[in-house]
Amino acid sequence: MNVCIVGTGYVGLTTAAVLAELGHQVYCVDQNHDKIEQLNRGYIPIYEPNLKEIIEKNRDRLTFTNGLDLGIKHASIVIICVGTPSLTDGRTDLTYIQSAIDHLALHIDSYKTIIIKSTVPPGTTEQLYIQLLEKGVPNHLFSIVANPEFLREGSAIFDMLHADKIVIGLRPDDQRSLPIMKSLYAGISCPYVITSLTGAEMIKYASNAFLATKISFINEMARICDAVGANIHDVAKGIGYDPRIGPHFLQAGLGYGGSCFPKDVKSLEQVAHSQKITPHLLQAVQLINDSQVNLYIQKLQQAVNHLSDQTIAVLGIAFKPNTDDTRHSPAEHLIRKLSEAGCIVRAYDPKAKLDSSHQPNVTQTDTLQEAVEGADILIIATDWQEFQQLNWREIKARMNGPIVLDARNCLRRQDIEQWGLQYIGVGCG
Ligand SMILES: NC(=O)c1ccc[n+]([C@@H]2O[C@H](COP(=O)([O-])OP(=O)(O)OC[C@H]3O[C@@H](n4cnc5c(N)ncnc54)[C@H](O)[C@@H]3O)[C@@H](O)[C@H]2O)c1
Ligand SMILES: O=c1ccn([C@@H]2O[C@H](COP(=O)(O)OP(=O)(O)O[C@H]3O[C@H](CO)[C@@H](O)[C@H](O)[C@H]3O)[C@@H](O)[C@H]2O)c(=O)[nH]1
Q1: Residue 111 C-alpha to ligand 1 middle, in angstroms?
Q2: In what order do the strands lie in the sheet with 192-196?
Q3: CB-neighbour burial class of residue 24 (10 A; exposed 0-12, middle 13-18, buried 19+)
Q4: Per CATH, is 196-429 categorized as 3.40.50.720?
Q5: 167: DSSP letter
Q6: Which tens digit of pLDDT belongs to each residue from 346-366?
Q7: Residue 322: nearest ligand to its CA?
Q8: Relative to the alpha carbon of 328, which ligand is closest?
Q9: Which of 113, 206, 220, 263 is most exposed, with the fewest beta carbons within 10 Å of its own?
Q10: Alpha carbon distance 146, 12 (integer Å)
Q11: Does 159 contact ligand 2 (Cβ within 6 A)?
């Protein structure tokens, strides 16, 4: 099939690579000229495991262009993957979706299946359908489908090729789209959840809200564990064996970040408010998450006399491992707070780059060793695999002070303490 992808960011590029791998001809459109120019030069603008390899392997099935008209001309399927960031009040900014739909309306002259893969608030896709009609696109020339994406950054290609489900939201009168969607994803073996447009949109929000809730739940349990002297690792393991709870997403730490959970939980909260519902649970989830970094700054303040005198090595800048994405990264938030507290911060990350707006007392080092050299405190802020395999004898020799804050609970206490270092974890002393 010929497919046009509008928005060549994390989701668009991954979708393009996977669909090309499945044998489709894919036209990738983005309004960002630099991005398209880079892609045409063979440079992949994001770090995502296996993405570069899969794009190179399928290069003859991929076209990168700024021209939506070219993509639309060739493709009968148009997948919208543009960003849907937060507005300042927490509602979703639909400007990019709106502009993609406006452009699309100008170019449709044969039947298209328009797939909304971007995460949008319930009711949006139906509104987009109405807008296309109002812009003069006759209803026999298009169908619109809500098909949210559930990939995780850092394992995006794997997640798409091995999806646990494909969610498809259809309009009640749409008899055409389901077989098209099944052909599009032929080669991915998983259950289909067929629902209404709003049902599909809600599944995406509920999924992210539930996962964020699990994280805030375990972080709250970690606070209580610290107070009563229990170990959160044991608690997570103990509850995780119960199949009704499950072992996943129970890793206590600095809280959730990234381009999805913070904005989607906020957006769902706003959707509830707009329906005169007070979303008590969503509010609590965010309250816990938003206070997690401060809590660990306070713990450091209690551990040293004057935090402002400290030189701190922060290992990790990305919001999670295996990505260079720093959007809403708790690690970056922590670095900013330490900088505001007057500390000298030396940050290191294998892939992510620090935002240039940081203060002069914050530097990013090229190597982990440079970050650690002479540090009073070392903090693990992102649980990259390479931080879990450190030589702590060597680290101890390089450091000036004894404190290691494992803010992602990814180290073994005894590995640290055996060299005379002081271990602080999350919910485990
Ligand atoms: N990042 C993820 O892990 C993830 C996972 C699932 C769902 N989502 C959802 O998918 C959507 C995209 O997320 P992302 O992280 O890929 O965003 P992104 O910011 O990385 O990419 C969006 C791209 O769209 C382009 N764009 C914006 N308006 C355009 C237009 N009118 N025409 C052409 N291109 C346009 C931008 O230039 C950018 O390259 C969001 O709704 C997000 O919530 C993201
Ligand atoms: O037990 C856990 C699991 C995750 N996190 C943190 O939660 C955030 C999000 O992690 P993750 O969900 O792995 O990454 P994302 O790439 O943001 O993926 C989420 O957001 C995407 C965008 O909507 C969805 O498609 C995915 O299904 C959903 O997992 C990161 O800061 C993690 O460090 C924890 O603190 N503890």
Answers
A1: 24
A2: 62-65, 25-29, 2-6, 77-80, 112-116, 142-146, 166-170, 192-196
A3: buried
A4: yes
A5: E
A6: 999 999 999 888 788 999 999
A7: 2
A8: 2
A9: 206
A10: 15
A11: no
Task: State how far the Cα of 421 lies from the Cα of 92, in Å rounded to an integer.
Answer: 45
Determine whether 149 is exposed, middle or buried from the number of CB atoms within 10 Å of its CB (0-12, 13-18, 19+): buried
Complex ipTM: 0.98
Active-site residue flag, 260: yes
* Model pLDDT, residue 424: 96
| Residue that is written with structure tokens 């994390």 in the block | 10
The length of the chain in residues reads 429
Tokens of 193: 């959840």
Q: Are 94 and 86 in contact (CB under 8 A)?
A: no
Which amino acid, 6? V
pTM over 0.95: yes
Place of tokens 């913070």: 262
Angle at 128 between CA 122 and CA 134, to 5 degrees: 145
The secondary structure element, H or E, covering residue 34 is: helix 33-40
Coil, strand or helix: which one is 236? helix
Mutate to test the pocket of ligand 2, among 10, 14, 205, 261 (most ligand atoms within 8 A of CB): 261
Task: Report whether pLDDT(429) > 80.
Answer: no
- Residue 365: Cβ-neighbour burial (10 angstroms; 0-12, 13-18, 19+): middle
pLDDT digits (tens, 9 = 90+) for 57-96: 999 999 999 999 989 999 999 999 999 999 999 999 999 9
Cβ–ligand 1 distance for 66 under 6 Å, the answer no
256 close to ligand 2 (CB < 6 Angstrom): yes
Of 297, 294, 319, residue with least CA distance to 310 = 297
Q: Looking at beta carbons, which pairs linking 58-62 to residues 24 or more positions away fall under 8 Å?
A: 58/17, 58/20, 58/21, 61/20, 61/23, 61/24, 61/25, 61/26, 62/16, 62/17, 62/20, 62/26, 62/28
Residue 64, helix vs strand vs coil: strand
Stretch (H or E) spanning 113: strand 112-116
Comma-separated ranges of CATH 3.40.50.720 domains in the chain? 2-190, 196-429
Place of tokens 């893969």: 117
Which CATH fold would you assign to the domain 2-190? Rossmann fold (3.40.50)
Q: ∠ at Cα 299 (292, 405), nearest 5°?
A: 85
What token pair was written down for 197? 């447009």
426 closest CA partner among 289, 254, 250: 254
Handedness of CA 10, 16, 17, 21 (dihedral sign): positive
